[in-house]
Known about the structure:
With 331 residues, the chain is mostly beta strands. It has a domain at 1-122. The chain contains 4 helices and 27 strands. The protein is elongated and about 75 Å long. The relative contact order is 0.06.
Amino acid sequence: MIFEIDEERAWILTLDMSADEITVPESHLGYPVAGFSETFFYEQLNRHNERENEDEKTDIHRPIIHLPRHFEPYATMFHLDTLRMCFRDFTIPCDSTYLAVDQDIVYNKDFTSIVMFLESYKPETTLTFKSSLKKLLYEANAPFEDVQEVVIPKNVSKISTRFHEEGFHGSDYGFFSMFDKLRHISVDQDNQNFVAVDGVLFTKDMKTLIRYPLKKETQRYVIPKETKRILGFAFSHAMIQELAFEEGSACKHIERYAFSNLRTKTLTLPETLESIDKLAFRSRYVMIGHLMVPSHLDHITSVVEHTGRFKIRRVSYSDTQTTTTNRRLSQ
């Protein structure tokens, strides 16, 4: 085990990754061991990439690591992904300075944010967290594939909706991107920031629609009239026969990716709309059968075309009986 030392702490440079278990010492040369150096992370990533390039089929050896008392939590997905790639499991001392464990979830010491999920963590179909939790971020490799309902605690004030909010750039990597079977979202009634209506997540004032559950079972969904903004990925990969806005809708803006890979026969946009981001309809295949658009949004054709070929079959405007088509829209 080799360390580098800054003015106050020691950081791990290299480990014997062939061992079955690794116990990290509390200190090195009188300096508390605080974690892994950036060099360690990049060396492990390079090691992993080399194995992929060599097309090795055998599983990489992953030891169990016993962390020291002063080990500091990592906040970025790059670090957490690399740690999970390297180690089979983690043990954390009860008197840890920065970390706490509850039901196989590693939190920061005051239980306000999640650091990582241990290998042994197996969630129920309804996912709940400690009430002290304040934010729900993208948790790399979280085992949420079979979760059907998420219950948001009363103290949560931040829910990530995009990867780049946490310092990265990518596509659908917000908190809800980890749920393949999500049918319902619930919010503690004492939460002052969010509310769920019919299983759909909004800000407390209902002005922003945050997320429609991927596997919600409904033939028709009507977006409430109070909603002024549809966030990115709000309806990503959802399947709805008919999607519409309530009469008297106040909706003004639809963000990019809001309807990415949405499957619906009809989507009717309200007259109040002022802007639609160019990537709002980004999809891989034919997804929307008929898109009905307010007449004043005369730029909608270019917005739709920006998604690529074969995504929307037909676009019509509210002030005419004719259908606007071109090669991209009609094929």
